[in-house]
């Protein structure tokens, strides 16, 4: 584990990740959600008190509990494998053999370096090798992996890998275009910039297939 504070700050400010998987401890689920909420509530109280906030004020005294519940139940709910969506697939009885694209899937995630929002769109595609998946399941897979402290590159790869596993094919692609509030609201404070990441598997590595996919989503970016 790296302990150099200056180097760790550089990793966070430059949005690098040292792990291709979300760095969870082995004991991550040894306590219940309710116990986690109580522990986080006390931590948030301490942060607000340290900042000088008056926690007796009606407007803010419920904030520690709200934040704790939000962390456990909502924005980081995708850390819990019990919440992983069941990726039901079906036989491709109609023999559809072309590309299927689900575009403009809303992404709400959280940057693991500053715990600030990542907001954007995911575009996902696959070519069936005999199995198809329900359209809403693609959205749910995106949501599940987004609901955790993330880096965008990892999120993009996880979506592709999950669909490849569910569909039994390498022919899956994902592009995410998102704004990072750790860039937009702090640091460089560039409110216009967004980050584009991609992962292309199987037939999508072919330049013509890749271009067809990018044409579908109308993303004028060179990969």
What features would you describe in this structure?
By secondary structure, this protein is an alpha+beta fold. The protein has 2 domains: 32-74, GTP cyclohydrolase I, N-terminal domain (GTP Cyclohydrolase I, Chain A, domain 1, Orthogonal Bundle); 88-218, GTP cyclohydrolase I, C-terminal domain/NADPH-dependent 7-cyano-7-deazaguanine reductase, N-terminal domain (GTP Cyclohydrolase I, domain 2). Helices cover 37% and strands 21% of the residues. The protein contains 7 helices and 7 strands, in the order H-H-H-E-E-E-E-H-E-H-E-H-E-H. The strands form 2 sheets. The protein has a 5-stranded mixed β-sheet with strand order 5-2-3-6-7. Strand 2 and strand 3 (117-127) form a beta hairpin. Helix 2 crosses helix 3 (63-75) and helix 4 runs antiparallel to helix 5. The longest helix has 18 residues, at 33-50. It is globular. The chain starts with a helix and ends in a 6-residue tail after the last helix.
CATH hierarchy class name of the largest domain: Alpha Beta
Identify the CATH homologous superfamily of the largest domain: GTP cyclohydrolase I, C-terminal domain/NADPH-dependent 7-cyano-7-deazaguanine reductase, N-terminal domain
Order of helix and strand elements from N to C terminus: HHHEEEEHEHEHEH
Helix content: 25-40%
The whole-number mean of residue pLDDT values reads 91
- Low-pLDDT ranges: none
Question: SS-based structural class?
Answer: alpha+beta
Strand percentage lies at 15-25%
So how many helices? 7
CATH topology value of the largest domain: GTP Cyclohydrolase I, domain 2
The CATH architecture of the largest domain would be 2-Layer Sandwich
**Tally of strands:** 7
The tally of structural domains comes to 2
**Backbone CA Rg:** 20 Å
The largest β sheet comes out as:
5 strands, mixed
User: What is the general shape?
Assistant: globular
**End-to-end CA span:** 33 Å
User: How would you write the strand order of the largest sheet?
Assistant: 5-2-3-6-7
Subunit structure: Homopolymer.
Catalytic activity: GTP + H2O = 7,8-dihydroneopterin 3'-triphosphate + formate + H(+)
Pfam family, one: GTP_cyclohydroI
Organism: Flavobacterium nitrogenifigens
């Amino acid at each position: 584990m790296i302990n150099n504070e200056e180097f760790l700050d550089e990793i966070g400010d430059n949005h690098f990740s040292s792990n291709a998987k979300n760095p969870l401890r082995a004991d991550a689920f040894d306590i219940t959600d309710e116990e986690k909420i109580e522990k986080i509530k006390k931590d948030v109280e301490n942060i607000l008190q340290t900042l000088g906030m008056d926690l007796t004020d009606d407007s803010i005294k419920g904030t520690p509990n709200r934040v704790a519940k939000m962390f456990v139940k909502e924005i980081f709910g995708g850390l819990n494998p019990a919440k992983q969506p069941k990726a039901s697939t079906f036989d491709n009885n109609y023999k559809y053999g072309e590309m299927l694209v689900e575009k403009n899937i809303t992404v709400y995630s959280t940057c693991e370096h500053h715990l600030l929002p990542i907001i954007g769109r995911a575009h996902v595609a696959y070519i069936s090798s005999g199995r198809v998946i329900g359209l809403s399941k693609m959205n749910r897979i995106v949501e599940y992996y987004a609901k955790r402290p993330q880096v965008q590159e990892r999120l993009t790869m996880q979506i592709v890998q999950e669909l490849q596993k569910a569909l039994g094919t390498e022919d899956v692609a994902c592009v995410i275009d998102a704004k990072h509030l750790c860039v937009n609201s702090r640091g460089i404070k560039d409110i216009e910039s967004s980050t584009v990441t991609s992962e292309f598997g199987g037939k999508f590595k072919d330049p013509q297939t890749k271009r067809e996919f990018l044409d579908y989503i109308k993303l004028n970016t060179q990969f």
